[in-house]
Amino acid sequence: MSGSQDKETPGGGHGDRTLVEDASGRRPFMRGIMVHSLMARGVGFDEAFRTANLVRDRTRNRGVVPRAELSKLISELLSEEVLGDHQPPIPLPGGIQVGDPEGTVPFSKGILAQSLLAASIDPSDAHDVAREIEFGLLRQGRRHIACQELRRLAYETMLRRFGPRPAARYMIWREFQEPEKPVIILLGGSSGVGKTSLALEVARRLGISRVLSTDSIRQVMRLMLSKDLMPQIHASSFDAHRDLPEAADSIGEPEDRVVSGFISQAQVVSVGVRGTIERAIEESTSLVLDGVSLVPGMIDLDAYKAQAHIIYLVVARMDEDSFRSHFRARGKRQRHRNASRYVDNLEGILKIQEHFLELADRYDIPIVDNVTIDGSVMLVIRHVVETLRKSGNFGDLGLQQSESTPPS
């Protein structure tokens, strides 16, 4: 390859830079990456920085240094107290490659730990599993592992540490990472129940990149439809009734005007919701969508069964004091939003929630009482994975099979 950055000196280096050589080729030595690798092993920053500087000084002007020699040098420089004799060799950049001969990527504990979160385990436990797998591969001197083998290894480690159910959830979700049909998670509920925070965390743990709220859909519709033409979408869900004509009391089953106004607004926004779902299906992109306009029974979700895995839950906050605390906290975080307005309309918000709960019961939709975000996230993920298990050919994967026969 031509170019000044690839021009080697007589000593074999790139200019004044030291190259690290192994079976896969040569890479420039970089202190910053070494510091990061050492800190990932639990070495403190000061010690990692000192070691990286010493390595640079001792290898300067060497041109090319074998990776094995560099690892030995690092182990000699770090004291037994810092490194510990039970640890494998230092994981240098590019040490383990994941993939097939046609294409590989460097092994990443962070990416592996992220995928393990679909098992509905604590993030710290996921990182411990990923670290254990990395150390095991390094102890074996592994430089390459196929994706399927890494998945199998993760399953076996999960099975040993946490039992069959979390291990099964991991395998099932991994099967849907490249699905024929996208997974669309809908989280409905009244204002202030924590839908958006829950949606963001569920999406993060499941590795779903697209997250949207019906508030965003409604905002776009506001720009297209004037207040004179469609007044109900220019108000909050608990205020929409103020612009309703008296005859609108007959909309829907409930007689309460607050609920009637809310339903009227949701019916308009549901047009945009359907468009969002259909767009995700067209692009085969998984999605987490939350919002007050996701009303049970308002959209025929069965119409999308053949095209997507659509999983709907209602999020609630059963404790009235919890509502008030949430709105006050929101007011501090988002000063442009008037927290007192929500507190003043708490009675209407509770009426809307009551209507949500009645509809959820009528349509047999699971309800998540959002007491704590971590607990709710795990409940949602477990429901999602269990629903996918029932929809696929997984049987009792990981629930009844023995530990000696993990799935391939």
Write up this protein.
By secondary structure, this protein is α/β, with parallel strands linked by helices. The protein folds into three domains: 14-83, Ribonucleotide Reductase Protein R1, domain 1; 97-175; 183-391, Rossmann fold (3-Layer(aba) Sandwich), CATH 3.40.50.300. It is built from 15 helices and eleven strands. It has helices at residues 31-40, 45-59, 67-77, 80-83, 109-116, 123-139, 147-162, 164-175, 195-206, 214-224, 257-283, 320-333, 339-344, 346-362, 373-391, and strands at 19-22, 25-28, 64-66, 97-100, 103-106, 144-145, 183-188, 211-213, 287-291, 309-316, 367-369. The strands form three sheets. Strands 8-9-7-10-11 form a five-stranded parallel β-sheet, with helices on both faces. Strands 2-1-3 form a three-stranded mixed β-sheet. Strand 1 (19-22) and strand 2 form a beta hairpin. Helix 2 (45-59) packs across helix 3 (67-77) and helix 8 packs across helix 15. The two termini are 41 Å apart. The model is unreliable at 1-14, 80-94, 247-254 and 395-408 (pLDDT under 50).
Short characterization:
The protein is of the alpha/beta class.
Please outline the helices and strands:
Blueprint: E1 19-22, E2 25-28, H1 31-40, H2 45-59, E3 64-66, H3 67-77, H4 80-83, E4 97-100, E5 103-106, H5 109-116, H6 123-139, E6 144-145, H7 147-162, H8 164-175, E7 183-188, H9 195-206, E8 211-213, H10 214-224, H11 257-283, E9 287-291, E10 309-316, H12 320-333, H13 339-344, H14 346-362, E11 367-369, H15 373-391
Parallel strand pairs: 1-3, 4-6, 7-9, 7-10, 8-9, 10-11
Antiparallel strand pairs: 1-2, 4-5
Helix pairs in contact: 1-2, 2-3, 5-6, 7-8, 8-15, 9-15
